[in-house]
Amino acid sequence: MKEIGLITVAFDDEAKEIIIIDQTKLPNETRMLRLSSSEEFYEAIYLLKVRGAPAIGVFAAYAAYVCACGCPSSDFESFYAEFAKKRDYLNSSRPTAVNLSWALSRMDKVVLEHKNEHVADILAAMKSEAELIHKEDEDACIAIGENALSLLKPGYGLLTHCNAGWLATSKYGTATSAMYLGHERGYDFRIYCDETRPLLQGARLTAYELSAAGMDVTLQCDNMAASLMAAGKIDAVLVGCDRVAANGDTANKIGTSGVAILAKHYGIPFYVCGPMSSIDASLESGKSIPIEMRKPEEVTDMWYARPMAPSGIKVYNPAFDVTDHSLITAIITEKGIYYPPFSF
Ligand code: MRU
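A: This is the predicted complex of the input protein with MRU.
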């Protein structure tokens, strides 16, 4: 059995198992999961055991390969019919991060490109593609970090929202990549992270991973960002993204748009960091980005010993919001830094 350290997503080809850290258990417990069925893959994405747009994409690529390994191998038609069912099932697990459908489409394309070959050869090509998607994400994160770091100065106060760290990607993260690189180079950033209600990705994941790396991190409730900015503590905001439309409108974790509005008010640069795989140029604007709505219990019950709202209360619980392109100073990708007017 392949031994792995703390990696967000790893693959054990011999066992045909995807290995992840169960992010719902962090920071109190580091539990590794080995998953091998389409139902387990779907549940891991839906329940946010694996989460963050790039990590979902990498996970989905391996998931597509493992599912394909279990499809009939007698002829291409039967193989592809079964594979397409599993692909669509995985694709329905979460709607907003485009990396999910992007990775599944890449895997699908490889299957179709090799349709005249033996199923064993199709599978070999799929495995290589999943590994390539994984490697590309790791390289993209480092390049995003270098590009973002070029905009920051030593001693800066940086605010981030949700978790766009190594737990959300293959390595270094996107919004956090410049923080890791700056930390290695003695930039002495003061980092602030929003707790990120209702699922607390900032408190449970970002505060955890950045403090474990030895950075100066301060946690705050989401409604404290204005106070922090008014106090002059923030020099730049760095966030990740789940889907960027052609005009630069950006879907990211719920609350991001509010932070961008505050940043504009206080004259603080607001940077969106993400790989090109999170850009969906097929959508003209953010109005067409599908926004995931989640269960009321995440707001009323989760994390509390007893429910903290009246039983049966109506709850508004969108998992993402769209930050208007007019609020974004720059979109930082592995290919470079894009400034307004955005046109992807
Ligand atoms: O619901 P989540 O935790 O998957 O949401 C994650 C985010 O919103 C991240 O900021 C985004 O996926 C970018 S991760 C590099």
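The radius of gyration is 20 Å. The chain is about 40% helix and 15% strand.
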